[in-house]
Amino acid sequence: MIRKRWTVPMVTLGEFDAVEGPKAISVLEFYAYQENDLFGPQFLDFSAVCGKVLISSNVVSGSLHLDLKERMIAIIARVFASNESNEESVMMLDPIAGGIASVSFSLEDIMARGKKRRFCLIVTHPESSELVRQRPLIFSFIKVLLERWVTAAKDLLSKEYSFCSYSNGDQGDTCKLLMRPLMSLVSEKEESVEITLKRIHTFFECALPAIFGFEPLNFDGLSSEALLLEAVKRYLKEKILLVNVFELDLESSFSVEKCLSIDGGRVLSIGQPPIIKPLSVWLLQFIQGNVNGLKETELILQALFTGNQILVCGESSFQCANMVFSLSQILPRPLRRVTVYSEEYVMPYESRILSFSQNVCERHCFNNAVNPEYDLSELNLVCINVSSEGNIVSVKKCNNPKHIFILNNNSSLKMEENSIPQIVTRIMDLFRSQKCEEIIVKRCKVLQLQIESFVNKYVMQGFIYSKLFQQYQVECNKGILGVNTTKGSNDFSFSSPARVIKNMFYDNVWYPKRWDSSTSSVIKTGQIAKSNIPSFLKSLKSKGFGSWAISIADHEVMLFLGSVSNSL
After folding, report:
1. Most buried residue, 120, 207, 451, 564, by CB count within 10 Å?
2. Which residue intervals define the domain Folliculin/SMCR8 longin in the entry (predicted)?
């Protein structure tokens, strides 16, 4: 049987029991690590926990899932076998778990034989090289935690000795008693087991992102272990009070919407992820079944690739959410700012793609005007009406707040006379070629792959394009403000895209040559935004990038998709 490799960092607490042998006490899973894959699945999910869990922004903790239990117990046994002396750290490899960093330690317990019990703390990571690289930081966090645990266990032992006197003859009866859980030994100030669990969860909610997150802590400049420990303690003191933890029962009966929206527009899957219809299927069905399908599909794609808000409305909140996930799935993860099953309208800066709860869907008749609480007259919204069968009924561009939910199927669609971005034109050409073809799985898969390939290409080009535009704006602003710019020793003339890419990604420092003074001199004071764009596109063409953007619509797409780097 081929076992699946573990894909996220985890922390497991283990114990060696004289009767039961090695056992796993609990596990903490850094589920937010899945976001490292920019084009990964929309849903974040849990792979290591089951039953009642504690969850926060980045970490979930609870009992170890049965699918992982056998392998983890074997790892715990290896750790105890490798650690003959107490409080020793060991690193090793496992074909399923990846890299393993472990620390075994003992805690004093008046009820145990010899007054001590053996535990271990194991950190696993799918990339062993990352575990080795972050080894000093990992063991610094662990040391801070174990110092508190050892102190708490000693305080408990002293307190119990002050009330009870155990002789050698009582040891046999004492060992027959059930051992207390680890959380009882490390509790502080007589706190309950539940509070202790939350405190430990909060610790790792701060520690795991700091070690393995997008921007891990960097203490390379600290010369000694003592200085590193002090820096870790200061970091924890600042972060721990900001953590919110809540309880969730993964085995309770959920409704059909088996997902949970959390901060930052992220969506967690509870249990099996819902089946999401690919965007290629949604749009191809709509184009083939609607007279204005092609024009209205252009509206959807243009809003999607420029970051304008899209509202998805209809009779079924589940189908609306399905459409939201289909749209956001083709975007890079940092741009997937979505809200599903919302009880109220959410502004565009909070959510780019929005659907409503079943209560809202049932409460409002979407063919009748409503008066929302927000003034949306200045917003550029696209509204999609979805049927309960899972099909797009109509698409409308809404700028009037009184018609946010008016999606009359017979209404005529007034298209703006703006130019269409190249990426939208190319995708629409694909749909036109398939308009009269039968919808089959293979054809839709190929179409979906082609759409995603276009997006990936524009993300990379947009990253470079946005850097060029930022530098252009800086040069224009210098001319307007009367700042003298002299050519420095680091300036270079980028005559080809290859030269720019080389300097951006290899040298890590980029100093492009000044733009022509004739270009910046035409910019008037107070006109530093859109008035720059035509001149910028003209200058861009002379530098070899002209095919990337030929209109303001292309410019907006490039800046939006290229903003992925700013979100990391």
Report:
1. 207
2. 86-169
